[in-house]
Amino acid sequence: MCGGLCYNCTYMKLERKEGQIEQLLTRGVEEIITLEHLKNALLSGKKLRVKFGIDPTKPDIHLGHTVPLLKLREFQKLGHKAVLIIGDFTAQIGDPSGQSAERKPLTKKEVKMNMRHYLAQAGKVIDVKRAEVRYNSEWLTKLDGQKLTKLLMLISVQQMIERNDFKERIEKGKSLRMQELLYPVFQAYDSVMIKADLEIGGSDQKFNLLTGRTLMERLRMKPQDIITLPLIEGTDGVRKMSKSYDNYVAMNDTPNDMFGKLMRIPDSLINKYFELLTEANPPNNANPYAAKLLLAETIVEMYHSPLLAQKAREEFKRVFSKKETPYDITDLRIRNLCPFGTSPAGGELGIMELLLAANVPSKSEARRLLAQGAVKLNEKTLIDPDTMLILKGGEILKIGKHRFFKIRLIRN
Fold first, then answer.
1. Buried/exposed code over 106-142 (b: 16+ C-beta within 10 A; e: otherwise)
2. For 98, 279, 292, 388, which has the most beta carbons within 10 A of its beta carbon?
3. pLDDT exceeds 90 at position 59
4. How confident is the model at residue 242 (pLDDT cuts 50, 70, 90)?
5. Conformation bin of residue 199: beta by default, left when phi > 0, alpha when psi is -120 to 50
6. Lowest mean pLDDT among 56-65, 243-252, 327-336
7. What CA–CA distance (Å, rounded) separates 149 from 232?
8. In whole angstroms, what is the distance from residue 55 CA to residue 290 CA?
9. At what angle do helices 7-26 and 63-77 cross, to 10 degrees?
10. Radius of gyration over alpha carbons of the chain, in Å?
11. In terms of pTM, does the model score above 0.85?
12. DSSP-derived pairing of the beta strands 375-377 and 388-391
């Protein structure tokens, strides 16, 4: 018995490590700056400080956010130090990356509310106990006028306004605020303060990540390497996953909701979802429906459990293949109805008001759903936005293929 110390065992271990590094640097990766430097650092056995930052601008983390978190987990598995930056300071500014208009700043109270469950959600992906978790208010609130001036002397105005989204807004005469110009500098300063060897981010973050390299170089530090990852389209298959577009899958969705949303994605996204959102590979020669079932079950299992994933699959097939009503259906509580007739048992409500009560994000979206024939009440398709409904309670509202509500009338 060699105890794993012979030449063959050592060679096999090295070969396995090289294979792991190759997958780390290729699967779901858009660009690496600089590839050779990073690859050599990984092969050398050096333990890297790998940074990923997220601003708590919303209370929920969705699957789009898990793309860099999953890459961060890969580095953790190889023994590197994951440094998770919670941008409690920068969230009050708002990242201008990819924005065609000025973002609404958040208050400190709003950011604090959004942060409450962030670590619990991130902990479904990375090992938070082994990670270094930092809040950038720790150092950014200490930047007084003198320190900030010294920092800004290291970055040129030309460098900032050459940025595509800034340039486009300037050319179109749209507002561009000073705090937005400072955002990339603050994100770069995070890298300085935690001495990052590598920063991970979406492809829309490339300018911010490069600013980190620039600032570190000018402070005579080793510049961080960069890995950018593709942005993932939401369930509509067109726009990037975002709560603003109502095309997202939240990590805190129920198993049934998560499964149903994932079954909604277009076939063209199946392979991309497997690559970016799981560690599994898409099945060979499977039809799109079977592949989506496996994808949905895999992701639900990641964030819930194998048992709940299996139950969600069975429920989906029962409801959507056999056209039955879900067992576990959401109550939609309605109060203050306009009374009708002499009966106190119910009342009238406009279809638009009902859809807004069911969390359809806007009246324009409600009209679109109606025009598409995507709204049913007790299996009757509703199209006219001026429809007034006589509700008695117990009706089943169906929006699209996957959202069901049982109407409950609340008496005052």
1. beeebbeebbeebeebbeebbeeeebebbbbbebbee
2. 292
3. no
4. confident
5. beta
6. 327-336
7. 37
8. 36
9. 160
10. 25
11. no
12. unpaired
Level-2 CATH architecture, domain 7-231: 3-Layer(aba) Sandwich (3.40)
Residue 230's closest CA among 398, 64, 35, 17? 64
Burial (0-12, 13-18, 19+ Cβ within 10 Å), 4: exposed
Q: For residue 116, what are the contacts with CB-CB under 8 A and spacing of at least 6?
A: 59
The answer to whether 188 and 143 have CB atoms below 8 angstroms apart is no
Given CATH 3.40.50.880, say whether it is the number of domain 330-410.
Answer: no
Section 4-22 average pLDDT: 68
Whole-Å CA distances, 243 to 57, 115, 122, 399: 11, 17, 18, 18
Q: Where are the domains of the chain?
A: 7-231, 245-321, 330-410
At 102, list the tokens.
């000025």
Distance between CA atoms of residues 385 and 400, nearest Å: 16
Judged on CB neighbours under 10 Å (0-12, 13-18, 19+), 104 is: exposed
Helical spans, DSSP H, in 62-163? 63-77, 108-115, 118-122, 137-140, 145-152, 157-161
Token duo for residue 47: 């333990």
**DSSP letters along 354-391, please?**
HHHHTT---HHHHHHHHHTT-EEETTEE---TT-EEEE
Lowest-pLDDT range of 129-143, 170-184, 263-277: 170-184
